[in-house]
Amino acid sequence: MSAPSPYIGRFAPSPTGPLHFGSLLAALASYLDARAVQGRWLVRIEDLDPPREDPTAAAQILQILDAYGLHWDGEVRYQSLRNEAYQQFLDELIQAGLAFPCQCSRKQLAGLPHRGNCHCSASTDIAWRFLCPDGRYCFDDRLQGHWCEDYAAAIGDFVLKRRDGPWSYQLAVVCDDIDQGVTHIVRGIDLIDSTARQALLYQAVGAALPGYAHIPVALESNGQKLSKQNLARALNTEDIAGTLFTALQWLRQQPPAELRGSHTELLRWAVQHWQPQALHGMQALPAPAGFQR
């Protein structure tokens, strides 16, 4: 028997609404990438922004993943239960001189990357920001090739904890990915601009960076990304095999037509024949007509 793969991947949706076709693409690609090498696949619910969340969405998301045969390993993690871990992560950055308090509002900071310190009026409501160094971060994405970003000029000192209390996406996702041992991240290219900020946080705490593969996003007919914010159509369970078949085709895989009637057989075939390089260099593709608004 071969040794288990060290690969650990994950799918980490926000419970702001039901899964749509674009969500399925990200889940399916990350699932196949892990299972193709006998790796582990985790699910994490990124529920850090209650005002934007649907209280029923997390359960619906898990039900859809299960119905589509995308079964995860271990327990589902909920970020809303991780406050102590995030505070410890922030404390480590503060002690290293890499995080500082800031009272500036978004309006006061608008138009310029925030650098170094705050000069705004004092307030009891402070955010915590990461002290961003000068320089560029470059990495080799498995699908998008060599990618660079001047994080100081483009981003500046980014938020770690917001003035109104919630933890930032960047801090929480890095803290959890490190804690869960995530080695590979497969996600949409709309998140590729987060990579530099996340890399800075990995480096700040001396953690090894994961490998990245950013898949193209699915577009509506008007060119907008298929998303919950743009009222993308929710997935249903009426034709799971047909939807998976369409998703595999969109991911530039070539599933046999005779498997269209069985989602179990489709997934088995897809794991055995997963070819992510078929998406190399692609950044956006039209969503199938049946999954647009």
TrEMBL record:
Gene3D superfamilies: Glutamyl-tRNA Synthetase, Domain 3 (3.90.800.10), HUPs (3.40.50.620). GO terms for molecular function: ATP binding; glutamate-tRNA ligase activity; zinc ion binding. It holds the Pfam family tRNA-synt_1c. Its EC number is 6.1.1.-. A motif ('KMSKS' region) lies at residues 225-229. It is an enzyme of class 6 (ligase). One of its GO terms (cellular component) is cytosol. L-glutamate binds at residues 10-14, 46, 169, 187. The keyword Acyltransferase does not apply. Residues 10-111, 129-240 form the Glutamyl/glutaminyl-tRNA synthetase class Ib catalytic domain. ATP binds at residue 228. A motif ('HIGH' region) lies at residues 13-23. It comes from the Bacteria. Keywords: Aminoacyl-tRNA synthetase, ATP-binding, Ligase, Metal-binding, Nucleotide-binding, Protein biosynthesis, Zinc. One of its GO terms (biological process) is tRNA modification. Catalyzes the tRNA-independent activation of glutamate in presence of ATP and the subsequent transfer of glutamate onto a tRNA(Asp). Glutamate is transferred on the 2-amino-5-(4,5-dihydroxy-2-cyclopenten-1-yl) moiety of the queuosine in the wobble position of the QUC anticodon. Belongs to the class-I aminoacyl-tRNA synthetase family. GluQ subfamily. This is Glutamyl-Q tRNA(Asp) synthetase. The lineage of its organism: Bacteria, Pseudomonadati, Pseudomonadota, Gammaproteobacteria, Oceanospirillales. The gene is gluQ.
